[in-house]
Design brief:
The chain is 34% helix and 21% strand. The protein is built from 7 helices and 9 strands. The protein is globular, with a radius of gyration of 16 Å. The relative contact order is 0.21.
Length: 195
């Protein structure tokens, strides 16, 4: 269970909610309402007072990198710090899972070793999802995971998300695609834009 208690993010009232293993919570609201800030705070990428725990493990009692191995944020505009996508995967089982996930997301082998800056936005988005899931985090925070994708490839992403849920992972989903939210989420958290 992912528990958030009295999490304070600028422009929002303190937030308290929980998400069970194998469940998807959609975080909704207009642009600028704090959806991305919420995901980043839960992932311990931005400071935010409050209590966040996963399976009884307190975010504040762990170093950031260790927490983010359990709770993974996948940005709508992913960052890359190595020249190729494959270079982001640790050799061995993680790399094998990364390649398998990339194939499931319709990414050709050749793209894994092509410079990231030569890839399309949609290719980078799918590879970022494969990278985020390759080491099997317990919770995945998805920020517009299909925003740059065509209908067919968006369906592949939804299939991967469903598999993550069946595997008992927690998913927080930010998506402006209401039909996608209807298909994937069991519950919704509505954020209102700050006055």
């Amino acid at each position: 269970m992912l528990k958030i208690e009295k999490l304070s993010i600028a422009g929002l009232p303190p937030l308290t909610f929980s998400v069970a293993a194998g469940a998807c919570l959609a975080v909704e609201g207009p642009s600028g309402s704090g959806k991305t800030r919420l995901l980043r705070a839960i992932a311990d990428l931005d400071p935010a007072p409050g209590y966040v725990s996963l399976g009884g493990q307190d975010r504040n009692e762990m170093r950031g990198p260790a927490w983010r191995r359990l709770v993974r944020y996948c940005a709508s505009e992913p960052g890359w710090w190595h020249p190729t996508a494959r270079a982001h995967a640790t050799p061995g089982p993680i790399e094998a899972r990364f390649v398998r996930l990339a194939h499931q997301l319709d990414v050709a082998d050749a793209l894994l070793d092509r410079p990231v800056d030569e890839l399309s936005t949609g290719e980078r988005q799918r590879l970022a999802l494969a990278r985020a899931l390759a080491d099997e985090p317990k919770a995945i925070l998805l920020d517009e995971p299909t925003g740059a994708l065509d209908v067919g490839r968006a369906a592949l992403v939804e299939e991967i998300i469903r598999f993550q849920l069946l595997a008992g992972r927690i998913v927080l989903l930010v998506s402006h695609n209401t039909a996608q939210v209807d298909r994937l989420a069991e519950a919704r958290l509505e954020l209102a834009r700050a006055a």
